[in-house]
Amino acid sequence: MARQLLGREVTASYNEQLAEKVNRLKENGIVPTLEIIRVGENPGDLSYERGAVKRCDAAGVQVKSVVLPADVTQERLLSVIDEANEDPSVHGVLMLRPLPKNLDASLIENRLRPEKDVDCMTDLSMCGVFTGKKVGFAPCTPQAVMEILDHYGIDCTGKRAVVIGRSLVFGKPASMMLLQKNATVTICHTKTRDLSSVAREADILIAAAGRAKTVTADFVRSGQVVIDVGINMDENGKLCGDVDYDSVEPVVEAITPVPGGVGSVTTSVLVGHTVEAAERQCGMSI
Length: 286
Prior knowledge:
- The chain is of the alpha/beta class.
- The chain has two domains: about 30-115, Rossmann fold (3-Layer(aba) Sandwich); about 140-260, Rossmann fold, CATH 3.40.50.720.
- Helix content is about 40%, strand content about 15%.
- It contains ten helices and eleven strands.
- The chain has helices at about 5-25, 45-60, 75-85, 105-110, 125-130, 140-150, 170-180, 195-200, 245-250, 260-280; strands at about 5, 35-40, 60-70, 90-95, 160-165, 185-190, 205, 225-230, 230-235, 240, 255.
- A six-stranded parallel beta sheet has the order 1-11-8-7-5-6.
- Helix 2 (about 45-60) packs across helix 10 (about 260-280), helix 6 packs parallel to helix 7 and helix 6 crosses helix 10 (about 260-280).
- The radius of gyration is 19 Å and the shape is globular.
- It starts with a strand and ends in a 5-residue tail after the last helix.
- The mean pLDDT is about 95.
């Protein structure tokens, strides 16, 4: 039976560290504040927003919500971002995406100042991920994976990591972050030839293919650590990941479940980035 890498254990430890930082900020008269910008009433956005607000409340981070209609003009949305940029009481900004197709997403996303970009919305923040410099913040989900590896003492140095997925949202930044942890990284995807053989070579296998149960027993071997980033619905309407958990879990050394794995850490990372943004902007090293 594989060791379960549980998100709740990572989150509990992470939140303890956050509480200390938030308390010190407040002792210095600073209330870390996240502004959430939402366009429309997409159910997925509403669910994520509720989770983020709940986690912020628990950590003592203030939330400012700006809700705009689905037919908002580009000029109005840009003005909201400009206001957030200039507001010293707002330390981090999360804009829920994707945006309506009539808007120029690249223009809007890059309007935000990188120091307030707590979920890697801007090109400059992504440059920070690739260069290893503290410009903006990494995407929350890849950072959540790194937090899981760190919490469970999984040393990446010299290990072979295989990332199934090449998106800018997860695959590419996660690969860069693994390189910074001294892993040897292979990026592959659903069109990679003989994908299962490549996956079996991994010491650390990260599945972010965006397809339910892509990783099956023939993708894995004993001794592997498997991180499942996927969130899908199976044929029975049950939440599942990109890994076929039932067939993979008996084979590998450790695995994250879905639900209860990476997703449960992601919102804590968002809160953590907001707190760190407040520290940076206020010149506090905590």
